[in-house]
Amino acid sequence: MEHILTMAFLTQTGKKTSITINGVKEDIDADKVKALMNLIIEKEVFFVNGGLLKAIDSAQITHRAITKFDLK
Questions:
Q1: Which residues, other chains included, contact 16 with Cβ-Cβ below 8 Å and sequence gap of 6+?
Q2: H helical segments located in the chain
Q3: Which of 62, 13, 18, 14 lies closest to 37 in space, CA to CA?
Q4: What InterPro entries does UniProt report for this protein, alphabetically (predicted)?
Q5: pLDDT of 42
Q6: How much is the pLDDT for 17?
Q7: CA angle 49, 54, 37 (to 5 degrees)
Q8: Which has the closest alpha carbon to 34: 3, 57, 62, 2?
Q9: What is the Cα–Cα distance from 41 to 36, expressed in whole angstroms?
Q10: Tens digits of per-residue pLDDT, 20-67?
Q11: Is 0.85 surpassed by the pTM of this model?
C-alpha cells in the first residue's frame, strides 16, 4: 500500500497551495507532519504564484492500494 502526504499551505497573498509527497512512512503522525510543514515555512524553500508559504492550512494522508493483473 502506498501512503501519500498532501500538505496545504496559505501563501503571502492568502492563496491556498499544496505539496504532495508520495511514499511517506506508514507510521508518520500529526506531530511529524506539523514539524515538517513549519520547517518548510521557516526555511522559505518554496515560492509559488501567491508568494512564499506563510501558514499551515491542513494536511492529510491518502492510502492507495494497487492491484496489478497478469494479462499475458
A1: 8, 9, 10, 57
A2: 30-43
A3: 18
A4: DUF2922 (IPR021321)
A5: 97
A6: 97
A7: 105
A8: 57
A9: 9
A10: 999 999 899 999 999 999 999 999 999 999 899 999 999 999 999 989
A11: yes
Give the integer Cα–Cα distance in Å for 48 and 60: 21
User: For residue 65, what pLDDT is reported?
Assistant: 92
Strand partners, 49: none
The Cα 20–Cα 72 span in angstroms is 34
Residue of higher predicted confidence among 50 and 6:
6
Question: What pLDDT is attached to residue 50?
Answer: 85
* Grid cell locating 24: 511517506
Contacts for 46 with CB less than 8 Å, ≥ 6 apart: 19, 40, 52, 53
- Length, in residues, of the chain: 72
What one-letter code names the amino acid at 57?
Answer: D
